[in-house]
Amino acid sequence: MPATASRPLRAHFRPPRPSPGLLPRVLSPLVADLGIDPGTANTVVYAQGRGIVVQEPSVVAIGADRRRVVAVGRAAQRMIGRTPRDITTIRPVRGGAVADFEVTHTMLRCFLRAAHSLRGWPRLVMAVPAGATSVERRAVRDAVLRAGARAAVLVDEPLAAAIGAGLPVEEPAGCMVVAIGGGTTEVAVTSMGGVVAHTSVRVAGDDMDEAIMDHVRWRHGLIIGQPTAEALKIELGAMRPCAGDRTSLHGRDMVTGLPREMEITAAEVREAISGPLEQILTAVEMTLSVTPPELAADVMDRGILLTGGLAQLPGLDVVISERTSVAAVLAEQPQLAVARGVGRLVEERALAGRLLHPRRAAWS
How does DSSP assign 164-224, residue by residue? Predict the structure, then answer.
């Protein structure tokens, strides 16, 4: 992992490289193709023949003048809320879209360099939200091309998650996937290698963190940071009451400005995240309501597959099952389902050719 770097940030901002002609064709057998899941919270890179080689937070720490990179990934994440005035931590991917093009390009360039040791121009399969606009898709494709990719093919995130979870996506049968990440929730029903019905909402783990921060601020007069809110969500965010359902937290008092400690219960955390949770449940119901009847029957038989980091929230599968009357099942290593899906497309050329049609010309 490229932990730190002192090189100027502007050094990475070069105009798009002209077509390198014959050289990439000569190097292509030597350069592993890559699959990337550029999530709001984490970026995961799959290298052909090696599996997952990069799994880092999507965070960059840069100088306040934006001229130098201080840290990328896990090292930058540890700096959130702890930096001096001349350093800023940035999450350049927000809500599944590129929020800061230059910093996204720099972050991806670092991750691509860590993923393949040979110099060359790798080809990429990249997951994007199914609800991403054409402008957002073009922005993420341009970012990886400038970061050093020779070609980039985009695949819808729910389809990639279904492939990674081993669902029979090419069969004429419905498979429902709910991918809940840091910035977006993707709900989709797939059949015959494509997405039949989907709902994409920009509500996910980050919104729950903000809801917890707001709750603690206005209910208890205590200011806490995003890392503390995320820790509370993980520790006390279970959808059902459990033993030991309280913990202490530290923050800054809104009135005195001094550090203060207090206790918070799991019931309060559940109350705080109920708003974002309701929007996620509504998205699942909306997708089921527009699913063709035959595919809806398949979903009833097969159940709903939950993927993404937030899917690991204890009891979330039970809540979704009760709300929809359809069994919900947590995927194995749900946070890696999308990365395994794009990885399988990288490894299996024939599968990629069938599912990425008519974009397969870029992958031939």
Answer: HTT--TTSSS-EEEEEE-SS-EEEEEEETTEEEEEEEES-SHHHHHHHHHHHHHHHH-EE-
Please give the model's pTM, rounded to 2 decimal places. Answer: 0.83
- Mean pLDDT estimate for the chain: 85
CATH number of the domain at 62, please: 3.30.420.40
The domain of 218 spans: 205-274
Higher per-residue pLDDT: 3 or 157: 157
Q: Are 200 and 184 in contact (CB under 8 A)?
A: yes
Question: Which of 92, 96, 127, 125 lies closest to 108, judged by CA?
Answer: 92
Q: Is residue 3 part of a domain?
A: no
Phi-psi region of 199 (alpha: psi -120 to 50; beta: other; left: phi over 0): beta
CA dihedral over 304, 307, 308, 313, signed as positive or negative: positive
- Yes or no: say if 239 and 270 are a contact pair by the CB < 8 Å rule: yes
**DSSP string of 227-240, one letter each residue:** HHHHHHHHHH--SS
How many domains are contained in the chain? 3
The Cα 287–Cα 143 span in angstroms is: 31
DSSP run (H or E) holding 264:
strand 259-265
Query: Each residue of 21-75: pLDDT tens digit?
Result: 433 443 344 456 899 999 899 999 999 888 999 999 999 999 887 778 899 999 9
Q: Which two tokens stand for residue 32?
A: 């592993």
